[in-house]
Design a protein that fits this description.
about 350 residues; alpha/beta; six-stranded mixed β-sheet; four-stranded mixed β-sheet; 5 helices
C-alpha cells in the first residue's frame, strides 16, 4: 500500500480507503491540521509564558541581588540601588579602602574576622605581659644564638673575645689605661698590693708615726719650734688669748714714729712717738684703726715748742701740753673715737 498525495499533504492508505468521498477526506485533513495548529499554538503560548516567567524571575533575582550587594562605592551609600531603605545584611565594596562593608541594621561596619573577646583571661585592649607565653612552652628551642636568628650577639663561651672593639668596650666600662697593664715593678706595669714600694711607704693608719724623721718632716713643711710647743697660761708654752696668762718676762709692744699731718696705720703698732720741734705738729686721724677696745699710747717729746694739733678722732679735752720735756698719753679706742684716759709727765697728772 502506498501513500497517495492529497492537496499538499499525504494521507495513509488506511485513511484514504476508509473515506469514500474526497470532500470528506479533505474536511478530515483540514480538521486534523487545525487541531495540530491549535496544539502547536498552545504549546508555543505555554513556552512563551514560561519564558516570560523565567525572565521575570531572573529580573527579580537581579533586582534582589542588586539590593543586597550594592556594588562599589568610594563612601558608604545611604540607600539601596533602587532608592529603598537599607536593611541588615546589605553589602558594598569600599573602593577607597578596598574593604567589604556590611550593614548591621544601623550602620556600615567593615567585614572581617570576628574579634577576640579575651586573651589570657583579659578583655578589652589587651597588652602582652610577662608570662602570657613562656619560653618553656616553646616545643623546639634552638641551642645557639644564631639559632634564634641573632647574628650580632655575644657568645658567653667566647669570654668577650667576639666584641667588635675591645678598646671601645673598655671605654664603655669606664676602664683606664691601667686595665691593660701587667703587674710588676718595672716601667709599664702596675704595682701589686704587697709591692715593697707600698710596704715601705707611710701608712695612713699610722697617722705619720711611721715617718723616718719627724723633725725633718716638720722642717720640710716649714713649721717652726712653736709647732711642738704646748699651749698654756705660763712658762714655755703658747699662751691662750682668751685666758689670763702669767708672763715670765716684760712684754714690749712695738713702737713707730708719727709724721706730722700724715695718718698712720694704728693696727700695726700699739706705741707711737712724736717729736715737736719748731712748728706745730699735727697728729692726724689714723688711716686704719686697731680692733675695738684697744689701747694706744702716744709719747710726745717737746724741744723748742709745745704746739700740737689733733685730728677729730682724738678726744683730748682738758689736756695741756708740757712746756718742755715729754708727755705720755694713753688712749682707749671704742670703735669710733680715741678717748684720752691718762697723761704722764705733763701738767695734767
Amino acid at each position: 500500500m502506498t501513500d497517495t498525495p492529497t492537496s499538499s499533504y499525504y494521507v495513509t492508505d488506511t485513511v484514504y480507503e476508509s473515506l469514500s468521498d474526497p470532500d470528506t477526506v479533505i474536511a478530515t485533513i483540514n480538521a486534523s491540521l487545525a487541531t495540530s495548529v491549535a496544539t502547536a499554538t498552545a504549546a508555543a503560548g505555554a513556552s512563551a509564558t514560561a519564558a516570560a516567567a523565567s525572565a521575570t524571575a531572573a529580573a527579580n533575582s537581579l533586582t534582589a541581588f542588586n539590593n543586597e550587594y550594592l556594588g562599589g562605592f568610594a563612601s558608604a551609600p545611604p540607600l539601596n540601588n533602587t532608592g529603598g531603605a537599607l536593611v541588615s545584611g546589605n553589602l558594598y565594596w569600599n573602593t577607597a579602602g578596598n574593604t567589604l562593608y556590611v550593614y548591621n541594621g544601623s550602620t556600615w561596619v567593615a567585614y572581617g574576622a570576628t574579634s577576640v573577646a579575651t586573651v589570657f583571661g583579659r578583655s578589652g585592649a589587651v597588652v602582652a605581659v610577662s608570662g602570657d607565653y613562656t619560653f618553656a612552652q616553646i616545643g623546639s628551642k634552638p641551642t645557639t644564638i644564631s639559632g634564634y636568628g641573632i647574628t650580632d650577639g655575644l657568645v658567653k663561651t667566647n669570654n668577650l673575645s667576639d666584641v667588635s672593639s675591645t678598646a671601645t668596650a673598655r671605654s664603655n666600662l669606664g676602664l683606664g689605661g691601667a686595665a691593660v697593664l701587667g703587674v710588676g715593678t718595672s716601667t709599664g706595669t702596675v704595682a701589686a698590693g704587697d709591692d715593697s714600694r707600698f710596704t715601705s711607704a707611710a701608712q695612713k693608719a699610722s697617722n705619720l708615726s711611721d715617718l723616718a724623721n719627724a723633725s725633718t718632716a716638720r722642717s720640710n713643711l716649714g713649721l717652726g719650734s712653736a709647732a711642738v710647743a704646748s699651749t698654756g697660761t705660763s712658762g714655755a708654752t703658747v699662751p691662750f688669748l682668751n685666758q689670763a696668762n702669767t708672763w715670765s718676762y716684760v712684754q714690749s709692744p712695738s713702737a713707730a714714729a708719727l709724721t706730722s699731718g700724715a695718718g698712720a696705720n694704728f693696727s700695726t703698732n700699739q706705741i707711737w712717738t712724736v717729736t715737736v720741734s719748731g712748728s706745730t705738729f699735727t697728729i692726724a686721724n689714723p688711716t686704719t684703726n686697731p680692733p675695738t677696745n684697744s689701747f694706744i699710747g702716744i709719747s710726745i717729746s717737746f724741744s723748742t715748742t709745745n704746739a700740737v694739733a689733733w685730728g677729730t678722732a682724738f678726744k683730748v679735752t682738758g689736756y695741756t701740753a708740757s712746756a718742755t720735756g715729754k708727755d705720755f698719753l694713753t688712749f682707749f679706742y671704742n670703735g669710733t673715737t680715741y678717748e684720752l684716759v691718762g697723761v704722764r709727765n705733763g701738767t695734767n697728772s
